[in-house]
Amino acid sequence: KAKEKGGNRVTFFDNSFGEQAKRRFEIEQDLRKAISQNELTLYVQSQFDSQQKLKGGEVLLRWMHPEKGFISPAEFIPIAEESDIIYELDSWVLTNSLSLIQQLDDRHSTLSLSVNISGRHFHEARFLSLLKTKIEFYEIKPNQLTIEIIEGTLLNHIESAIEAVQYLKNLGVRVSIDDFGTGYSSLTYLKQLPIQELKIDRSFVFDAPTDNNDKLIIDMIVSLGKLFQLKVVAEGVENQSHFDLFQEYPEVIMQGYHLHKPEPASDWIKKLK
Ligand code: C2E
Ligand code: MG
Ligand code: MG
Ligand code: MG
After folding, report:
1. Single pTM value for the model
2. In degrees rounded to 5, what are phi and psi of residue 80?
3. Phi, psi of 35 (to 5 degrees)
4. Which residue lies with its CA nearest to atom 11 of ligand 1?
5. 64-84: per-residue pLDDT in tens?
6. Confidence of residue 133 (pLDDT cuts 50, 70, 90)
7. How far is the CA of 128 from the centre of ligand 1 (A)?
C-alpha cells in the first residue's frame, strides 16, 4: 500500500513538474513574439516624499498573454534572463521609458523615472552604449533616469559593476540598488560603488510596524543612506501603519499600494499634464 501511495506521489510530482516545465517553455517561446505583437505595456508607480509630494515613479513591465492572460514580471523576467530575450526586453523597456521622460514637461523636470535592468545585462558594454545612444536621441536630462539593479546581481561581478556604475555616473544617470538588504552588500562594496540610491526591500517594510528587528534594519539602511549621502526609497508601503512609520524618517521616499497602485504609463503622463 505504502508503495502504491509513494508511486502515486511520484506520478503526481512528475505531472506537476511536467506542467511547470511546459509553462516555462511556452512562456519562453511566446516572449519572443510578445514585443512584435504589442502584448507588452509599461506601467508606472508613483513615489512620494513624507509630505506626499510626487517625486517620480518606477516603470514596471506588464505582459498580457493572448491565451494565458496577465503574466507577472516576477514570473517571466527570470525566464527571459535564462535566454537572450532579456536583452530585447530591457532595451524595449529602456527605449519606451526614455520616451516617457521626454514627454515630461519643464514643470516636471525634477521628477525621476526608475527603470529595472537585469543584472545579466547591466554589466555589458552593449547596454551602456545603447543607453548613451538613446539618451542622446531623446535629448533627456540624464539625471531624470534612475537605473535599478537588484543587489544580489550587482555584486556577482563586482569589478565590472564598479566600471558600469562609474560609466553611468559620468553620463549623469542615477543608479539605485533594488531590494536592498536581501543580498550581501558589505560596506566595502558600497564605498566603491558611486551609486545614488538604496531601495529598502518590501519584506522589511511589511512587518516593521510590529517587528522591532525589521524596524532596526530600516534604521540601519536609513543611517547608511545618510553616511554615504544616498537617497533612500522604501517599497511596499501598503497601509497607514507603514506610512506612519516612515514619518519618523522624513528623508525617505515612499512607494506602495497605500500611496499609488501602478497604472498605465500613458495615464500617468496624462494626469501630469
Ligand atoms: P521590484 O523592482 O522590486 O518592483 C516592485 C514590485 O512591487 C512591483 O511588482 C510592484 O507592483 C510591487 N508593489 C508595489 N507596491 C506594492 C505594495 O504596496 N505591496 C506589495 N506587496 N507589492 C507592491 P511587479 O510589477 O510585479 O514586478 C515584480 C518584479 O519584476 C520587480 O520587482 C522587478 O524586479 C521585475 N520587473 C518589473 N518590471 C521590469 C522590467 O521592466 N525589467 C526588468 N528587468 N525587471 C522588471
Ligand atoms: Mg525595482
Ligand atoms: Mg524592489
Ligand atoms: Mg523587492
Report:
1. 0.93
2. -65, -35
3. -70, -50
4. 262
5. 999 999 999 999 999 999 989
6. very high
7. 23
